[in-house]
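Technical note accompanying the year-one report. For the benefit of new consortium partners, we illustrate the data format agreed upon in the data management plan: each record pairs a sequence with a structure-token string. No post-processing was applied to the example shown here.
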Amino acid sequence: MKRFTCLVSAVILLCAATASLAGPPVFKQKKYYGPIPANMLSFSMGFIDGPTAEHLIDHFENWANERNGQDIWTDFSNSPFFLAGYQYQLTPNHFFRSSVSFSYLSTESIGDYVAQGDSLFQLQIDRTLKIYLLSLELGFIYYVMEPEVRNFSPYVGGGFSTVFPFVRLDNESFFEGNSFDNPGETRSKNSYQAGMHVEFGMIYYITNKYSAAMEGRLQMAQSKFKMHNGNFDLDYQGFSLGLNLNYHF
């Protein structure tokens, strides 16, 4: 009886093992991906912090103080930053990169000063400084680890930029609550300047076609803005942190 029971148990176990081997695997098999293509398009969105117009702001504050008034400014806040780029693999770890980036900067103030016309009178002022910063960039990237699907790879890079700042200063003046025409206090200037940038990040290859990265960038550039017979530096040096989504082809 014991022999029969053991034989039946062995047959059942053998059938169960055969059925298990014949059925689909319990765990999903790892999908095979081909090599990662040499070309990549990148789209990034994040925030930039650090640009300043302190020389121009100091001038406005001193200018108002000299006229028995004040001009109180806010700092540039963390500003939106966008980037679209193209990258080409030169060696397994070295890449050429070109990109175009855009950021929007703004700050504002409220104040007053004693103006002079036919007589002295107190004039209230609201100023807004807006900067649309466009940058064209060329550089090189070094990947610490050779790109491979389902792996992380840290990278560093840098290069040169051509920066196009579109700067506008708007001024609204009021006397006793009514709008007051104050010519010469609203100005704008467009220019192009040379700059540099440094970047570092960590990329993860989801497939051989798609990847994502967190990237930090330090940009260095500046321009001039003329106001009240003075030429003041606007400093665009700042650090940005963004999320990159990449397509390889």
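Partners are asked to follow this layout when depositing records. Confidence is low (pLDDT under 50) at residues 1-23.
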